[in-house]
Design brief:
alpha+beta, seven-stranded mixed sheet, 24 strands
């Protein structure tokens, strides 16, 4: 079947999923958009925050934590001020010394030395875990406990994704040893504030065994394609590029609407914290998910092997 004909078949199937109330509609609307979107949101969708390892120290993105907690912030080129219910924290780039004014004028305010200097990378301010704890949260190297009691992870870069130094990528564990590829690009809020997660639909039943029947059912609808789940999230409202390029052993495929990339939820042009985007990429069967391939999106490139 010609590619355009196959694309028409795929779109008909997906139209049935979305509009005709067929058996798969419940799977996509309930499972895909709730469980999958909740579990696969990146740091930018409030399930985790960005981390950085440099100079032997571990850092956590201060302004991302402030945004999650609803703390007000203000900044200039050399300092960041965070106002929390526990007090006001002022940090300075490249300095371990901070100003802390606890609420109610307690005795523990004034100049405080942190365990590591504050770093600023593009629009993101990074501080060691003890800076987070001043704001009334519990911080560990790889996780945080928010004021609500919920625990989120700290995502550290696993791979440098671009030879040009623009954006990054990392492997994201989805559960039970199943990994997806996260690509971080520049959005309206600065560098690394726009992300796309890619995951092999064929392995999602391993990550979520309690949903194996539903996953296997939808996978059977795409026997002549290799479907990849994708999710796009952002720190702030931003446009996103609906074009993903795959290359493997001389083969090249550009997934873009309306055929190779199908948006099932959200806007095909814009993404925001309240409006993430998700859907499927229909990779040709000539691509082998057990062999490394190059993936490029929004100026970020990485090599990934979806199956081992």
């Amino acid at each position: 079947m010609h590619l355009s004909q196959r694309a028409g078949v795929y779109r008909a199937r997906l139209a049935g999923v979305t509009f005709r109330g067929c058996a798969l509609q419940g799977w996509f609307s309930a499972l895909w958009l709730s469980a999958v979107m909740m579990l696969f949101s990146s740091a930018l969708a409030q399930t985790s925050v960005s981390g950085l390892r440099e100079g032997g120290f571990s850092y956590i993105a201060l302004n991302e934590v402030a945004r999650l907690e609803g703390f007000t912030t203000s900044e200039n080129s050399t300092s960041l001020t965070i106002r929390s219910p526990d007090g006001v924290l002022v940090v300075f780039t490249k300095s371990p010394d901070v100003l802390w004014q606890p609420s109610g004028g307690g005795q523990d305010g004034g100049d405080i030395g942190l365990s590591a200097p504050i770093l600023k990378r593009a629009a993101t301010w990074y501080g060691p875990p003890d800076a987070i704890e001043l704001l009334g949260l519990v911080a560990f190297e790889t996780s945080l406990v928010l004021s609500s009691g919920s625990q989120i992870s700290v995502n550290y870069p696993a791979v440098t994704a671009s030879a040009l130094g623009v954006g990054r990528s990392e492997l994201t564990e989805l559960g039970n040893g199943v990994y997806g590829l996260s690509l971080f690009a520049s959005g309206s809020a600065g560098s690394d504030t726009l992300s796309m997660l890619l995951a092999d639909v064929g392995l999602l039943s391993l990550a979520f065994p309690e949903r194996q029947r539903e996953f296997d059912g939808v996978l059977g609808q795409f026997e002549d394609a290799r479907p990849l789940f994708f999710s796009v999230t952002a720190v702030d409202s931003s446009t996103w590029a609906g074009e993903v390029t795959f290359q493997q052993q001389g083969r090249r495929f550009i997934a873009q609407p309306p055929y190779g990339l199908v948006v099932l939820s959200g806007d095909s042009r814009r993404v925001s914290p309240q409006g993430p985007v998700s859907g499927v990429i229909l990779l040709p069967t000539s691509f082998n998910l057990r062999t490394p391939m190059s993936v490029s999106w929004s100026g970020v490139s990485a090599s990934v092997q979806f199956r081992r």
